[in-house]
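Fold this sequence, please.
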Amino acid sequence: MQQIRPIVDPFALMMNPQAVIQVMERSDRLSRLQRRVCRPLDKPLIPTASGDVARYDEEVEAFPDDECGDE
């Protein structure tokens, strides 16, 4: 079996990814790591406005743009 020397330069590792994978598969330290799958939440919790704030927002949105005083 061919002995693979550890390469310190990360750019050199990119040139031979198969060697990196082989070393990872044989690594005792990596095999002892506990594994778990973490997934992001499907729907983030977005805070909703309270009743008074929501009504004010609706009134502002319904206000015609030509009456805002912006010229």
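Residues 51-62 form the longest helix (12 residues). The two ends are 80 Å apart (CA to CA).
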